[in-house]
Amino acid sequence: MRRLMLAAAMLGTVSAAHAADMPDLPVLRGGFTDGLSKTTRNWDGFYAGGSFGYSSASTDFSQSVVGLTNFIFRDSVLQGPTSSWSLLNKTTTQGANFGGFVGRNWQWYDAVLGLEGTYTYFNKIASQSSGSNSLDIVNPPGDVQPVGVTNHYLTTLTGTAAATVKDMVTLRGRVGWDGGDFMPYAFAGAAVGRMDVSRTVTSDVQLRQDATVQDPFGNVITIIGTPQPVPAQSQTQTQHRTNNFVVGWVAGLGLEYCLWEGLFARVEYEYVKFSPVMNTSVTLNNARVGLGYKF
């Protein structure tokens, strides 16, 4: 028994001495949480840079001249039938874009939140559409005809519309993930664009009155009348706005790569939807590459 106790005491002394020589492991100091983040880059701080790319503008002119036709046919029986005419078409235009950006990142572990302002100049993003439509409007609602008479309003509309997107500014919130040298991110925010928008419509209306009569033999015949001009509804209306500011919203995805210290490159896709101007709606799809520096 005495030998057993002596052996146990000697073993405890050796173990204590060995433990004293071991390094101070982080797990013993509560440092295990230090390994939760694998961050190798610091994306936190202010940054600025420039970019260039390619833009595709989709412009919807289908309702562009409706406001003008409603004015021409106001307080007449033709306003209702012509208000739904889709006289013009949708168009797509491509061109280059150039701009700059400035922003601020805040980083918590691998999450990066940011606020960024951008300016983009568009080169030759101009769209245009023209069209013509003719319709025989017979006894429209509200029209009064003599007994046996059918009114035919022979209506022709010819119109053109154009839109040019000059530039825009955006304010975007960003959410990114620190992947070391890479940082993918998503963004959304508000946009304000500057555009030139114009539209013109010409109406030509003639009234033909056909009479239905009965001849002496009891046969019903229709006498085709001669078209007569209707000056009040035959006119041209034009509207033009230069440097018109229009609001919209923006969203997209991007990726940044750290080249050297604070120098980084980026590539991104951006979708922009503007509110209609004179019934003309414009959406943009922008692809960009850029170079920036984080201070």
TrEMBL record:
Membrane in keyword set: yes
Top-level taxon of the source organism: Bacteria
Signal peptide region: 1-19
Domain Outer membrane protein beta-barrel span(s) in chain numbering: 7-295
Alphabetical list of Pfam families matching this protein: OMP_b-brl
Gene3D superfamilies assigned: 2.40.160.20
Compartment(s): Cell outer membrane
Keywords: Cell outer membrane, Membrane, Signal
Family: Belongs to the Omp25/RopB family.
Protein name: Outer membrane immunogenic protein
Biological source species: Bradyrhizobium japonicum
UniProt lineage: Bacteria, Pseudomonadati, Pseudomonadota, Alphaproteobacteria, Hyphomicrobiales
